[in-house]
Amino acid sequence: MPYARPALSDLRAQVAADITAGLPTADGLLRFSNLSILGTSLAGLAHLQYGFLDWIAKQACPYTSTEEFLEAWAALKKVYRKTATAASGQVTFLGATPGALIDAGTEIVRSDSMAFHAVETSTVAGDGSIVVAVAADSPGEAGNTPAGSLMTLGSAITGIPSSGAVTTAITGGADQELDQDLFKRMLEAYQKPPNGGSKSDYEAWALEIPGVTRAWCNPNGFGAGTVVVYIMLDDANADYSGFPQGTNGISASDNRVTSGNLAAGDQLAVADGIFSEQPVTAMVYVCGPIPLPVNFTISGLSGASSATRAAIASAIREVLNEYGEPLNGSIVPLSAIESAIAAISGTAGFVITAPTDNLANTLGYLPILGTVTYS
């Protein structure tokens, strides 16, 4: 039976009762009585002590710990908070003078004043174009930039136009891991101890990489001896609906790598991270699932406001994120989607007319929300 922590009012009443019992001939509870003031102070101190003991009890258990104590419990299972990482990609400037240079460290600024820098010195090619590898000055998701975004030089360079554009999406930026995300990974580590390369091991190794929020493992996915790991970066790659930006393949450190199976971009970062943990004989392919839009038709809500429709779309996405996976043998239950919509105010009387059955997950494909039609 859990201990019932007394409320402050209960402590005050208890102290007042003790004062009255100890001084039966004196009224120590009058408004300005020294004993009354002292009793109120003692009750407050006792309440603070109860609160501190309550906090200590929470930090003494992995399941309820927070902040640095959560990190300490997680570290016992070799689970560490993912640090923030800086985004990187490529920017191209056209119409430059052949032979002109952009030195490493040159500032390049996005239209919203987000600062980047050239990773290495680049030279203008004979066609007047110059491709510059850039990285964000500050780590975090804010540095992720879709292809086509406008970029400008921080200061003028002779022979180089001031304006350019992102030609290879700037990705890989991730914020520092939040407590709730670290808690999920820590709990997985306690519940599923390493098994020398089990399915859950590969998923845990992928989730250790900054930016990765979901991962699935398909043993022997590309034949005997292979392991296919599907990943999603829901926050870092929000501009791309969370799908990784890169090329599916294996780690550059694997001695079986060729030009045809080398991973790139987000997939390469995860493949390289898994390589140091995986069994030496496995050939691990890191892949991005293929988006599979699912269209919905909902009757009974033709007059729903835009706010209600946005809430419905958000609710459906949450269910798809929870149950959707690029593996065979599982489903996204239609009842879970109906329950999520029913919990939204103003949706009474709705009926989902399409799809009419549970959504079967398909190998290699990840269900995402398509269009929602109201009738």
From TrEMBL:
InterPro entries the record matches: Barrel_Baseplate_J-like (IPR006949), Baseplate_J-like_C (IPR058530), Baseplate_J_M (IPR058531), Phage_Baseplate_Assmbl_Protein (IPR052399)
Family annotation (Pfam families): Baseplate_J, Baseplate_J_C, Baseplate_J_M
Top-level division of the source organism's lineage: Bacteria
Domain Baseplate J-like C-terminal: 294-375
Domain Baseplate protein J-like barrel: 91-173
Baseplate J-like central domain ranges (all copies): 194-288
Annotated family: Belongs to the Mu gp47/PBSX XkdT family.
Protein name: Uncharacterized phage protein gp47/JayE
Source organism of the structure: Azotobacter beijerinckii
Organism placement in taxonomy: Bacteria, Pseudomonadati, Pseudomonadota, Gammaproteobacteria, Pseudomonadales
